[in-house]
Amino acid sequence: MNAKVLNGREHWASRLGFILAAAGSAIGLGNIWKFPYITGENGGGLFVLFYLLCVLLVGLPIMLAEFVIGRSTQSSPVAAFSELAGEQSAWKLVGWFGVISGFIILSYYSVVAGWSLNYLLMSIVDATAGKSPQEISGIFDKLYTSGSLNIFWHFLFMAITVGIVLSGVKEGIERWCRTLMPLLFLILAFLLVYGVFSPNSGFIKAAKFVFAPKIETFTSAGALEALGHAFFTLSLGMGAMLTYGSYLPKNEDVVKSAFIITFLDTMVALLACMVIFPILFGHGMEPQQGPGLVFKAMPIIFSNIPGGMILAILFFALLTFAALSSAISLQEVVSSNFMDRKGWTRKKATLITGTAIFIIGIPSALAGSGSLLAQWKDIFGKNFFDTMDYLAPNWLLPMGGFLMAVYVGWIMPRKKLEDEFKSGSKWAALYPLWLFSIKFIAPLAVLLVLLYKTGIINL
Ligand code: TRP
User: Fold this and answer.
1) Cα 308 to ligand 1 centre (Å)
2) Considering only CA atoms, which of 37, 394, 441, 65 is closest in space to residue 224?
3) What is the pLDDT of residues 21-71, one digit of tens each?
4) 64 is a domain residue
5) Could you report the per-residue pLDDT of 223-268, keeping only the tens digit for each?
6) Is residue 459 part of a domain?
7) Number of structural domains found in the chain
8) How far is the CA of 60 from the centre of ligand 1 (A)?
């Protein structure tokens, strides 16, 4: 594949670079922090099976839709819709929706990633040495309620993200993901092998929990949570994959790439479960730990096992890398929008929006300390951080994904769609199947979730 510049636009230097960058976007806190704990809460088994179905039947087709729009227009979301549907068209709002989602998601994602940086540093200085489990889990509460620490880590994480995006698509994003992603797979594989062979491993119990279908623990709410998470984990619904697709040349096989990216993302989510649950079960802990699972339980576990300090460093390095390659994609959507729409340079777009995202994130960083926007919770029932984390994955992404599926399936000229899907693909025969899922299955499934969430239907 050549790296020539089409229409003056920068392109990926290699297919592997693109796949690793897109996989890097998909694989993040969603896989390692969130998936294990929602699997725990939903009793594993059927929940996991249903999640896999959602990824295959809804996520994969929508990812392809984003690649198709991005590559055919060679533009970021707003510019893409204005090119396809016309400058005056309301479809442009789908693009703006994506940019706003990018601001919102990155602003609080960076705060969680900041916790990961904090734990990485703690592991390096062995901060849990000689502490009791209560003291160790208390560390998280101290961190959560410390405004200054949260701001510091949030700032540092945003600065790193901005620094990488500043260097551009090939030199920044692609080069970093090419290093970070293989490292991440390596660390995960190592931790998995460790789990299998460590003396008091709960590996068999964990495998049963994650993979054996148990009808009694499966609920309709769990089914819908699985669908929503499929969006978040694959970075769909706000134009991140659309933007990455816009840096693709026409001879790239988008169908094959989408399969590989989806497969890698799913593998990491399942691997993360098979790393975390054996250690949990091996130490007699329950899987229903909620969102604190990674930050509260893992350090306790690491402090109990020989060589735990090294494992802790590896684990939190992995979590930080995963978060970083996802954050890059969120920042890139926002940056490329202002580059394409306003003609700003990459430097101007990234510095200005990165600073804005840092500022928008301040109330999230201070949510635990309760010092800023303290009345927010009284008004909305959730603190600022939780409100953002609720709004974006549960509403903005599914709505964005739904609209993109409708646009591609029902509005975009059919000939253009077919050409774009098939261009450079050895898997062109899948076109009718994809068309069916993007017209019917994916939008209907998302509609079901949204109606359920508004309470219009009650399963
Ligand atoms: N997919 C990432 C995760 O699982 C998060 C993420 C990155 C994302 N970019 C996105 C989510 C764009 C939605 C849209 O952690």
Assistant:
1) 29
2) 394
3) 999 999 999 999 889 988 998 989 899 999 999 999 999 999 999 999 999
4) yes
5) 878 888 999 999 999 999 999 999 999 888 999 999 999 999 999 9
6) no
7) 1
8) 15
